[in-house]
Design brief:
Helix content: 25-40%
CATH superfamily of the domain at 80-346: Metal-dependent hydrolases
Radius of gyration: 24 Å
Shape: globular
Largest sheet: 8 strands, mixed
Oligomer: single chain
Low-confidence stretches: 1-22
Number of strands: 16
CATH topology of the domain at 80-346: TIM Barrel
Strand content: 15-25%
């Protein structure tokens, strides 16, 4: 850059006529049915404006956007947020080399987001289900401490890890070998040890110490995977003793202590498809549990049970199932959007000014089997929902002179 060019550039910057970065493109979605997941509720014939990666206006008096999209009355929701899976950490469950969510040596400081693959073939398939963000968690190893959860978006970008170390995951409850009492004692000993430890200002604390300190301060949620009511009750008492930010995962027996959970403000991540006991710890598994917990005042998050890394796509169907068994429509929507954002401290999950522009336009009710994603935006950018399954369908149905299993 010559002195003259540099001088001219500085003059233009001073005059406000030059910017080092071009202004972000804006998109207006008009004539939409906005399910905001806020106090505004459902807005008919509404407009939402995106600029950069944020929502900048809802129902503005005038619209002057770079691109305007007529939703023609279609439903627009905040992007769904998956939880408690290894999306991007596993490709083929039967191939050990493609599984990075666990390690025998994993403990409190295990952070599997270091291995997150934003180009996993499972991610576009998850987008087809309206999933724009996901809370990935470790499977852990020999310790009761599985490791640290992180939040990722499903944009496919190599900058997809939005927030690292958002929660500590611990596995408690029944054991095939040993006693659940020892697991609970191990947790208590760790918390008590960190609480009573003398701090050395001259020595940098370890990652484990930082994590435990954050848990004790209530800044980092402790996600306890547990089913039995008595274990859940004991954990609520532990929350009262140490002031931890407790989240129950699993909780097939949570309905037994629903009032206790609501009073203690403890969220529950639950599968709405658990309808039969899987063990003596889950004797109260029932399809109506999500609705019962909601009615009791518990903040509910719906997660996909089983191989959720490959099936997080079906989150919307599981939410619809919860509605059919007594959960409110808004409660189910919150359970896959705003409630997740609240628990993990995310600037998303609702349609409101200033929130991350993760939006999904649906052909019809997103909880219905025959609906689909019409358009999707992640961080303000429109993304495709074409998945490997679509490409395989095209490959095997395209007319060709080659044998049926091939295309040109």
């Amino acid at each position: 850059m010559t002195k003259l060019t540099k001088s001219l550039k500085l003059s233009l910057v001073a005059a406000g006529l030059f910017s080092a970065t071009a202004s972000a493109a804006s998109v207006a979605i008009v004539n939409a049915t906005l399910h905001t997941s806020t106090e505004q509720g459902v807005l008919e014939g509404a407009s939402v404006v995106i600029e950069g990666d944020k929502i900048v206006a809802i129902n503005p008096t005038s619209i002057n956007a770079d691109t305007t999209i007529d939703a023609k009355g279609q439903i627009v929701t905040a992007g769904f947020i998956g939880t408690m899976n290894q999306l991007g950490l596993v490709e083929v469950g039967a191939v050990a080399g493609s599984r990075d969510g666990s390690d025998d040596k994993a403990t409190i400081d295990f952070d599997p987001s270091l291995a997150f693959n934003p180009r996993s073939s499972l991610i576009p398939y998850a987008r087809k289900g309206g999933i724009t963000q996901d809370v990935i968690v470790p499977n852990g190893g020999e310790s009761i401490f599985a490791g640290l959860a992180s939040v990722v978006d499903l944009s496919g970008s190599f900058e997809s890890v939005n927030k690292k170390q958002v929660a500590l995951v611990v596995h408690l409850g029944e054991k095939s070998k040993g006693s659940r009492a020892m697991s609970m004692k191990t947790l208590i000993d760790k918390l008590e040890g960190e609480k009573s430890a003398k701090k050395d200002d001259k020595k940098e604390p370890s990652t484990e110490q930082k994590v435990l300190a954050a848990v004790l301060a209530g800044d980092m949620p402790l996600i306890a995977s547990v089913q039995r009511a008595s274990d859940i009750y004991s954990l609520v008492k532990l929350k009262e003793t140490y002031g931890i930010n407790l989240v129950i995962h699993g909780g097939d027996d949570a309905v037994v202590v629903a009032d206790t959970l609501a009073k203690a403000n403890v969220p529950v991540i639950i599968s709405s498809m658990a309808n039969l006991p899987g063990s003596f710890d889950s004797l109260h598994a029932n399809l109506a549990n999500a609705g019962k917990l909601e009615k009791a005042g518990v903040k509910v998050i719906i997660g996909v049970a089983g191989d959720s890394s490959h099936n997080v796509y079906q989150l919307r169907f599981d939410a619809g199932n919860a509605v059919s068994y007594g959960m409110t429509q808004q409660g189910a929507l919150s359970a896959v959007t705003s409630n997740v954002a609240d628990v993990f401290g995310l600037n998303s999950g609702v349609i409101a000014t200033g929130k991350r522009a993760n939006l999904v336009m649906w052909s019809a009710d997103p909880f219905e089997l025959n609906s689909h994603v019409s358009k999707m935006w992640i961080n303000g950018e429109e993304v495709s929902t074409e998945a490997r399954q679509d490409k395989l369908r095209e490959r095997y149905t395209t007319d060709s002179a080659m044998p049926r299993a091939y295309t040109k």
